[in-house]
């Protein structure tokens, strides 16, 4: 019989099955909401990091250019203003990029680890975020030796606990966590597919009797 007439597969039961489902598309070619949220958070973190590092650098470079260019000659006032803006823009791009990729990498690793732990354990707890923060902080500071590794672990854990508490508070306002929502959607999808399969099966049996 064609595969579409087979009994639908039940929802994933083990942690590894749920993890592998994170990177698989559904029938509508859509990735799971957790994966989409990781991508959105990475983009937002990159933009915020660029602004955080770029805007102060722009102001500082523009001020420094004005202070050291008092003796220079410019064609007119507009030329002087444009030169100052170009100097600030170069610093905005340079320092904004330095902060952007670091913040993006930190947030992405943190979200991947915390989401992976929540999906594997099939529950969202503050310990998932604390472990994700500690791992990410240690990873970023491991090049400084054991002292840097310990410092990054402490800093990351201290960052992960309030961040996780904030996310859990948002989930409580929504009425259900991401895992509860995902489990409910899996169950509803399986029940709908099972009902459709049983309906097709009954139609096939009637045709066979006819």
Automatic annotation (TrEMBL):
One CC-aspect GO term: membrane
Originating organism: Sclerurus mexicanus
Membrane topology of the entry: Multi-pass membrane protein
Locations listed in the record: Membrane
Segments passing through the bilayer: 38-59, 99-120, 149-174
Family: Belongs to the Tim17/Tim22/Tim23 family.
Protein name: Complex I assembly factor TIMMDC1, mitochondrial
Keywords from the UniProt entry: Membrane, Transmembrane, Transmembrane helix
């Amino acid at each position: 019989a064609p595969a579409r007439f087979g009994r639908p597969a039940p929802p994933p039961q083990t942690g590894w099955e749920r993890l592998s489902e994170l990177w698989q598309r559904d029938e509508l070619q859509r990735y799971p909401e957790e994966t989409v949220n990781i991508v959105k958070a990475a983009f937002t973190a990159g933009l915020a990091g660029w602004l955080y590092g770029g805007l102060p650098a722009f102001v500082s470079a523009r001020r420094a250019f004005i202070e050291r260019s008092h003796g220079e000659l410019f064609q007119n006032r507009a030329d002087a203003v444009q030169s100052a803006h170009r100097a600030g823009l170069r610093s905005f791009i340079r320092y904004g990029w330095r902060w952007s990729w670091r913040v993006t990498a930190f947030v992405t690793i943190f979200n991947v680890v915390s989401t992976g732990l929540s999906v594997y354990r099939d529950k969202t707890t503050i310990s998932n975020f604390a472990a994700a923060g500690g791992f990410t902080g240690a990873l970023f500071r491991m090049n400084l030796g054991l002292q840097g590794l310990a410092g990054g672990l402490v800093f990351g854990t201290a960052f992960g606990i309030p961040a996780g508490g904030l996310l859990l508070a948002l989930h409580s306002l929504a009425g259900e966590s991401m895992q509860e929502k995902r489990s409910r959607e899996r169950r509803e999808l399986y029940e709908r597919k099972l009902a459709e399969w049983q309906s097709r099966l009954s139609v096939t049996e009637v045709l066979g009797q006819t």
